[in-house]
Amino acid sequence: MRTPSGDLVAALDIGGTKIAGALVDSGGALLRTARRKTPAEGDAAAVMGAVSAVLDDLAGAPEWPGVRAVGIGSAGPVDASRGTVSPVNIPAWRGFPLADEVRRPAGGRPVVLVGDGVAMTAAEHWRGAARGRDNALCMVVSTGVGGGLVLGGRLHAGPTGNAGHIGHVSVDLDGDPCPCGGRGCVERIASGPNIARRALASGWRPGPDGDTTAAAVAASARAGDPLALASFDRAARALAAGIAATAALVEIQVAVVGGGVAGAGEVLFAPLRQRLREYAALSFTADVEVVPAVLGGDAGLVGAAAAAAERVGVWGGV
After folding, report:
1. Which segments does the entry list as coiled coil (predicted)?
2. Could you list the mean pLDDT of each consecutive 10-residue stretch along the chain, which spans 318 residues?
């Protein structure tokens, strides 16, 4: 294990509900943290104001002079080659030059931008469930489905920072239209809102509290409700098909699954492993493991720092 050095990376995790920041050391520890609510319905300047406030909090810490780079994991799509972001859940940011806007308050330090799924992947490979694996797919299954790849022992973000975005792989050629413009995407079937949508459409009804989220469907599934179980099985099939396709293309060893829907536990993982055995039938895909992510809510920050450290060479890479 690497002994933490004095060199730090500042990390930002930008989503539709919150903007989080941290100073991260070479052991993956969050030394200082800051947070603001995302003014998602505000104009571009208002959203950037929240980002700047988080950076100001971090810059006020005594450790700030030790920061060597800034890593950003953002809801996407992102375009790392241009340094721009167009998050679906932040309407005012379309082609927004986030890297340039962050570089100024960061004092000209190098800024590395990746999608939030790639950031989660970097975190799980560095300090989580994919640690020690040279080839991995890591996935976030929540209100959307995102992901990223590790190939040959290194994070593979791709030219725009979106590589491994499994949520928009089509697994049902005649499936429902997806907001991305495709059809039958993994996200359209396996995300939390779509698990709940399918359950309700099939006749599932919530309990007395009226909760219609995927978490409520998961609770019904644990209690044996066949309609809830069927909705999770459908999601598991979509995820399994996407994982199998990825394994056939790039020969991954493990698929790490995190995000809120993964909190359903074996309600999701049991059918997912079963369906993967059906879809991943080739000899070089059949042994792919499926494991839960372990870093939870810190993954975006840890991963943004790891992605920046690898790109810039802080700590000798991670």
Report:
1. none
2. 67 92 96 94 95 96 96 91 90 95 92 92 95 96 92 91 92 91 94 95 94 96 97 98 97 95 96 97 95 92 94 81
The ranges assigned to domains in the chain are: 8-116+297-316, 129-294
Fold of domain 129-294: Nucleotidyltransferase; domain 5 (3.30.420)
pTM beyond 0.85: the answer is: yes
What's the CATH fold of domain 8-116+297-316? Nucleotidyltransferase; domain 5 (3.30.420)
Q: Judge whether 49 and 57 are in contact, CB under 8 Å.
A: no
How many Å apart are CA 87 and CA 38, to the nearest integer? 12
In this structure, which amino acid lies at residue 281?
A: A
Per-residue model confidence (pLDDT) at position 317: 65
- Is-same-fold flag (8-116+297-316; 129-294)? yes
Encoding tokens for residue 21?
Answer: 């920041």
**What is the reported pLDDT for 141?**
93
- CA dist 137 and 142 (Å) reads 16
Q: What is the pLDDT of residue 196?
A: 97
Q: Where are the alpha helices (DSSP H) in 82-138?
A: 98-103, 116-127
DSSP letters along 231-263, please? HHHHHHHHHHHHHHHHHHHH--SEEEEESGGGG
Element (H, E) at 114: strand 111-115
Q: Is 314 helix (H, G, I), strand (E, B) or coil?
A: helix
